Amino acid sequence: MDAEVERINWKFKAKDWKPVVYLKKHHSHQEIFPFYKHADLCMVTSLHDGMNLVAKEFVASREDNDGVLILSRFAGASRELRDALIVNPYDIEQTAEAIRYALEMEPDDRAARMKRMRETVRENNIYRWAGNLITELSQIRQEPKLPVGAA
Fold first, then answer.
1. CA 151 to CA 137: how far, in whole Å?
2. Do 98 and 113 lie in a common domain?
3. What is the rounded CA–CA span in Å between residue 108 and residue 15?
4. How big is the CA angle at 68 (ends 47 and 84), to the nearest 5 degrees?
5. 49: closest CA among 71, 69, 26, 27?
6. Which CATH number characterizes residue 48's domain?
7. pTM score, whole prediction
8. pLDDT tens track for 62-105
């Protein structure tokens, strides 16, 4: 990863700009928020379910309704955030095309997609999740225990 970031940045850098900002450490929400807020796009390309909070934090941070989310089809959030550009992260060409499309997307389309995703994140919050979990648990029917030897 280090070598690839260095290769890309060396090839495409400008005087005061580089395409990949690679920060290799744990970041607090306060540290990462400005990156979410100013990024043109956010890629969450998990190879298996994961990174859902990163995707949702990016969407929640975009009060300006701008930015594009590129999301792995393997991330659970892809079932909720249907206005993201959904990719198979094993398909390099498809992922590259999604990046191109995201960067060239019309502002009105970006805004409409982000607005719908923000509504989804707002509606499907922790309270709804907990309520749904409790409802499902309350519907589990407990089978009566049979006496020993009875079948």
1. 27
2. yes
3. 31
4. 55
5. 71
6. 3.40.50.2000
7. 0.77
8. 999 999 999 999 999 999 999 999 999 999 999 999 999 999 99
